[in-house]
Amino acid sequence: MPTSLRLIAALLVAATIAAIASIAVLHAQDVAHARTQAEQMTGGSVDRGKLALSRYGCGACHVITGIADAQGQAGPSLAGIASRATIAGRLANQPDQMVLWLRHPQQIVPGNAMPDQQLSERNARDIAAYLYTLRKTTY
């Protein structure tokens, strides 16, 4: 292979590696920002929310990104829920409304499939914090 082609190939490999590294850095920054923003918005803890989602068995009905075995089909997938306009088709997707829905789904939409889990305010805020990290990504 001529020297000029080797140089072009090396430059292409270097550019590809740089692009992949840039995407990885952007993703890490996006995840960190989403976490901080979600905790500030809700007053909850993302880590505690992740544990609470597992403890309350939310994955039995929902697909939930990042929660092991959360592949339920009875309820909607919660992937990208932070990017949605509404919760349950009725409430504006805002932290106080998310907490209200998590605590009292039967009060909001009587007879719906979401059970009232008797969540405390803290557990609901923690779960909301985790759910607000589940945004659609654009890269």
UniProtKB/TrEMBL annotation:
Tell me which PROSITE patterns the record gives: CYTC
Q: Which SUPFAM superfamilies match?
A: Cytochrome c
Enumerate the spans annotated as Cytochrome c domain. Answer: 44-135
Question: What keywords appear on the UniProt entry?
Answer: Heme, Iron, Metal-binding, Signal
Gene3D superfamilies hit by this protein: Cytochrome c-like domain (1.10.760.10)
| GO molecular function annotation | electron transfer activity; heme binding; metal ion binding
Recorded hits in InterPro entries, A to Z, give: Cyt_c-like_dom (IPR009056), Cyt_c-like_dom_sf (IPR036909)
Q: Keyword Iron, does the record have it?
A: yes
Q: Which residues form the signal peptide?
A: 1-28
Give the protein name, as stated in the record.
Cytochrome c class I
Tell me what organism the protein belongs to: Sphingomonas panacis
Matching Pfam families: Cytochrom_C
